[in-house]
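Reviewer 2 asked us to include a model.

Predict the structure of this chain.
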Amino acid sequence: QWGRYAAQTLSNSTGARFSGIGHAGISSSACARAVFASFLATPTAPDVACVADVKPLWPSIHSALSQVVTF
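Predicted model (structure tokens):
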């Protein structure tokens, strides 16, 4: 919920949901690192294409660990 709130209050933000990643999105997901690097390079239009292909680290509990990462 806080990631979505932050995205609403920051005019140049990008939010991406990483299912089953939890709070350690940047350290545990190559895609999250790529999205973050893309955001730093082009803050108004980062490449988030890989997010749809991210697989949960723990499929049986992925909904409880889903995290919206706001850059």
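The chain is about 40% helix and 10% strand. Helices lie at 2-9, 25-28, 30-41, 62-65. We have added this to the supplementary material.
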